[in-house]
Write a structure and sequence with these properties.
The chain has 386 residues and is α/β, with parallel strands linked by helices. Helix content is 41%, strand content 22%.
Length: 386
């Protein structure tokens, strides 16, 4: 059995309404996905997190080293890709390209063996996970705190037990937004906040202290990811748990993050940090340090399914009779690519999502939607953006 072909696609969709966060504005969703086909006719799908066109180029660079290999030997293929990129890409977008191919190979392996990916990872340790709603980005029009509180109340009414808001516009405005949202959703729903590394240490301490009374579940990326020592210092100056890691790559990047005692919660993006093969290693590393792991997830249903299978298999440390809630990020911003490209029986209901037992990652990909949103056709030629 061999890998017959690898095709990558850049998908694009213009948003009806732009939104922004502490760093820049989103007016378009653009994502790179990859299709790996075996000579048995089985197909696996993967996704890379990051600049889509650059990830596509990375996939094309790695393709000659992967085609012809046995698709069941995921670790062996991962090692080949890693060695072929080590000298010039120990982190960054080429690792995202590796991640996309690796995720597709796990999906392909599951379909060939007619088993769900969580079983191939070692087994299902929970039947359900708890998605938290990621939203409450910044928009134009209306008083922002009121707009965000209405959105937060909608998530609460829909059944979400946890949600994450954006901060980073400025300390006073952040405080007002946090207070308004907490008032809207009440005391029982977990509220996280994400600054996308907008603040320096002094500002992060000031904001954290100010919002401690509003029971913040975690403060994500308060500081630029380069400043490990500052992250560690911030942890000593607030009662709010500190989260981060979406900007780290491979187990070696996470070793630095963990050994510096920078975070209470580590957040690898599986579609960027090395795929499922490396995510398993990162999870083991996190368990050695006794640090919780909640993957960063952003993109299509491919990324969501990948995170779900990973979390289904993930160890809870320490173990106990009544297992704690295992959260999964569930982006709720406008994204037609997420809504139309895939279908699955893993749906949100009563605050939880049940893990699928379907083969592979457990979704069906709609090739009509692929054609609709791809800016390169199935032969790899550029087409007009949707």
């Amino acid at each position: 059995m061999k890998i017959k072909s690898i095709q990558s696609f850049v998908l694009s969709d213009k948003l009806k309404q732009s939104f922004y966060f502490s760093q820049w504005e989103y007016s378009e969703r653009r994502i790179c996905i990859v299709k790996v086909t075996s000579d048995t006719g089985h197909v696996g799908w993967g996704e890379g997190y990051g600049p889509a066109s650059i990830i596509k180029a990375g996939i094309e660079h790695l393709t000659p080293f992967v085609v012809g290999q046995d698709p069941l030997q995921t670790e062996t293929i991962w090692s080949t890709m890693y060695r072929r990129s080590l000298d010039f890409a120990r982190s960054g977008v080429l690792v995202s390209a590796m991640s996309a191919i690796d995720v597709a190979l796990w999906d392909l392996k599951g379909k060939i063996l007619e088993q769900p990916v969580y079983l191939l990872l070692g087994g299902k340790k929970r039947d359900t996970i708890t998605p938290y709603a990621t939203g409450m980005y910044f928009t134009e029009g209306g008083k922002l705190s009121q707009v965000l509180s209405v959105e937060a109340k909608q998530y609460a009414d829909f059944g979400y037990r946890a949600m994450k808001m954006k901060v980073g516009l400025g300390i006073e405005e952040d405080i007002e937004n946090v207070k308004t949202i907490r008032d809207a959703i009440g005391p029982d729903i977990h509220l996280m906040m994400d600054a996308n590394h907008a603040y320096n240490l002094r500002e992060a301490v000031q904001l954290a202290k100010a919002v401690e009374p509003y029971n913040i579940y975690w403060f994500e990326e308060p500081i630029s990811p380069e400043y490990y020592d500052q992250y560690a210092e911030l942890r000593t100056k607030t009662t709010i748990p500190i989260a981060g890691g979406e900007c780290e790559y491979l187990r070696f990047g996470f070793q630095k993050l963990l050994s510096s005692k920078s975070v209470d919660i580590v957040q690898p993006d599986i579609c960027a940090s090395g795929g499922l093969t490396e995510a398993k290693r990162i999870a083991v590393l996190a368990s050695v340090y006794g640090v919780e792991i909640v993957p960063h997830t952003w993109g299509t249903g491919i990324a969501i399914a990948t995170a779900a299978h990973f979390i289904a298999n993930m160890d809870t440390m320490p173990g106990r009779l009544k297992s704690p809630t295992c959260f999964m990020e569930y982006d709720r911003t406008e994204n037609s690519l997420r809504e139309e490209l895939t279908s699955t029986d893993m749906v949100f209901c009563n605050g939880e999502m049940k893990i699928t037992d379907a083969p592979g990652l457990g979704f069906e990909l709609d090739e009509e939607a692929l054609h609709k949103y791809a800016i390169n056709d199935l032969n790899g030629q550029l087409a007009q953006p949707h």
